[in-house]
UniProtKB/TrEMBL annotation:
<dbReference type="InterPro" id="IPR036928">
    <property type="entry name" value="AS_sf"/>
</dbReference>
<dbReference type="InterPro" id="IPR023631">
    <property type="entry name" value="Amidase_dom"/>
</dbReference>
<dbReference type="GO" id="GO:0050567">
    <property type="term" value="F:glutaminyl-tRNA synthase (glutamine-hydrolyzing) activity"/>
</dbReference>
<dbReference type="Pfam" id="PF01425">
    <property type="entry name" value="Amidase"/>
</dbReference>
<keyword id="KW-0808">Transferase</keyword>
<keyword id="KW-0436">Ligase</keyword>
<dbReference type="GO" id="GO:0016740">
    <property type="term" value="F:transferase activity"/>
</dbReference>
<protein>
    <submittedName>
        <fullName>Aspartyl-tRNA(Asn)/glutamyl-tRNA(Gln) amidotransferase subunit A</fullName>
        <ecNumber>6.3.5.6</ecNumber>
        <ecNumber>6.3.5.7</ecNumber>
    </submittedName>
</protein>
<dbReference type="InterPro" id="IPR000120">
    <property type="entry name" value="Amidase"/>
</dbReference>
<dbReference type="GO" id="GO:0050566">
    <property type="term" value="F:asparaginyl-tRNA synthase (glutamine-hydrolyzing) activity"/>
</dbReference>
<feature type="domain" description="Amidase">
    <location>
        <begin position="23"/>
        <end position="441"/>
    </location>
</feature>
<dbReference type="InterPro" id="IPR020556">
    <property type="entry name" value="Amidase_CS"/>
</dbReference>
<comment type="similarity">
    <text>Belongs to the amidase family.</text>
</comment>
């Protein structure tokens, strides 16, 4: 199916004039018309303007002026605004609000020839690890409609898995790129803080990262090279731009640390099996993989995260909740009402204590391998309340293992598929690099992608 081509394959075929951008976009749109009634990954379809761009892309390939993303259909997370279009963030409170600015990531994608054909769903204000809202309804996992695609970039993850986009954007404040990547069997990259420009005020929040999602590691690298680099609107954006080189997947002689639990996370058996398979694949490829212990606790991680969210992200939502609680989803109000155990300052102190053993570990190892999530997926309509993990009830976010690396925000992290769970949904592993060492993370991911058996395509017709 053309809609399941990788972006790199599609670009090569179009460069050789063996595929038309119009033909590719038509296949993606036709696929969306079949799957969207069940998946509900899109908030907005931009098919008419996209088709005009596809026709222009045909001319660019014919006259030799094709750009890196020329003619590639890209789904944009609705959280990332586009001037003149709605910017509702899944909230009845913002229904009909029109954006006055375009996110730098979107601008760079369109300048590189990418075709924005759709915008993707999020939970309200992107404040949850699942994707449903009172405004847009429930987004479902293409692998099993009873399950969530994760969140908050769940629409992007579901679209990629369903074959309704070749590339997609996400954002990640506590795992919002990596959770959907794991649940949907795709690849997602949390860049280190400042690598990809963002908009104020959250460009100054070190937990916040905009990043690329795709079905292959090479496609994620392609999109990352387009969106990365300094930007005049973002004082935190880093100079000079890092350009990822071609990926060889050569890990011979690398030292990889393996942690199954990141301290005391409870990890379900299917996730353990996928992570061990990834570790064995790296060993077979010539890496030295050594299991390690980290002195973290789930309580410690969540205490630091709660203090941070309450002081920054939660504060903005809390202001809205005071006057408009009746318009907000239950999980949004719950997020706004969370009372942290620690002050913001105490949370920063704890963040430093959390990073230290990881930093010391990464002085001895080239990267860390661990599960992306402790569970294969959440129920599609989970409301953000307690969720049992291995029979132990607790906060549903204890089912994900991504937040430590928002605390360690300068560490690049890639999530790649590791297998399939009994429920028919994928599992994933995270590859965590030293601060700002994006290249090593991508090389390890490329190795894993080549070495592990593929998981195929989801069952959704």
């Amino acid at each position: 199916m053309l809609c399941y081509l990788s972006a790199t394959e599609a670009h090569a075929l179009m460069s050789r004039r063996e595929l038309s951008p119009v033909e590719l976009l038509t296949a993606v749109i036709d696929r969306a018309e079949v799957t969207e009634p069940r998946i509900n990954a899109f908030t907005e379809r931009l098919y008419e303007s996209a088709m005009e761009q596809a026709k222009a892309a045909e001319a660019a390939y014919l006259n030799g002026t094709a750009r890196p993303l020329e003619g590639i259909p890209v789904a944009i997370k609705e959280e990332q605004p586009i001037e003149g279009r709605t910017h509702e963030e899944g909230s009845l409170l913002l229904q009909g609000v029109i954006a006055e600015v375009t996110h730098p990531v979107v601008t760079r994608i369109t300048q590189a020839g990418g075709i924005v054909h759709a915008r993707t769903t999020t939970p309200e204000f992107s404040c949850a690890g699942f994707t449903h809202s009172r405004l847009w309804g429930v987004t479902r996992n293409p692998w099993n409609l009873d399950y969530s695609p994760g969140g908050s970039s769940g629409g992007s993850g579901a679209s990629l898995a369903a074959g309704t986009s070749l590339l997609a954007t996400g954002s990640d404040i506590g795992g919002s790129i990596r959770i959907p990547a794991s649940f949907c069997g795709v690849v997602g990259f949390k860049p280190p803080f400042g690598r990809v420009p963002a908009l104020p005020p959250f460009n100054l929040d070190q937990y916040c990262h905009d990043g690329p999602m795709a079905r292959t590691v090479a496609d994620v690298a392609l999109l990352q090279n387009v969106i990365a680099g300094p930007h005049p609107w973002d004082v935190a954006s880093i100079r000079p731009k890092l350009e990822l080189p071609p990926l060889t997947g050569d890990v011979r002689g690398m030292r990889i640390a393996l942690s199954m639990t990141l301290g005391d996370y409870l990890v379900e058996p299917d996730v353990v099996a996928g992570t061990l398979a990834a570790a064995e694949a790296l060993r077979a490829a010539g890496a030295i993989v050594e299991e390690v212990e980290l002195p973290w606790t789930r309580a410690q991680i969540m205490a630091a995260a709660d203090a941070h969210f309450a002081g920054i992200f939660g504060a903005g939502i809390r202001e809205l909740a005071i006057e408009h609680a009746d318009l907000l989803s239950d999980y949004t109000r719950r997020f706004a009402d969370t009372e942290p155990e620690l002050s913001f300052y105490q949370g920063m102190e704890l963040e430093g204590l959390i990073y230290r053993p990881l930093g010391e570990l990464l002085e001895r190892f080239d990267a860390l391998l661990c599960p992306t999530t402790a569970v294969p997926a959440f129920p599609a309509e989970h409301d953000g309340g307690p969720l049992p993990i291995k029979g132990e009830p607790g906060d549903y976010m204890l089912g994900v293992m991504t937040i430590p690396f928002n605390i360690a925000s300068r560490c690049p992290v890639l999530s790649v598929p590791s297998g399939l769970a009994a429920g028919g949904v994928p599992t994933g592993v995270q590859i965590v690099g030293r601060t700002y060492d994006d290249v090593t993370v991508f090389q390890v991911a490329a190795c894993l992608e080549a070495a592990l058996p593929g998981i195929g395509r989801p069952a959704v017709p």
